[in-house]
Design goal:
Elements: E1 10-14, H1 20-25, E2 35-39, H2 43-50, H3 54-60
Amino acid sequence: MAAKNVVLKLAVAESCTGGLIGDRITILQALSDYYLEVTAYAYEAKERLLGVSHEILTQYGAVR
């Protein structure tokens, strides 16, 4: 079996950490091609950008 070229991406959605994970990861500049991040606090952002349902947010809160 031949080896395949694999492209990996790291995606993180942060809230209560306020971007801390992204800060630690982006210390290594070479990761910019592989790293995607959203830091979302508002319900609207979590719903629209991250696909979290309004019901989940109202039941459990925005930050857990």
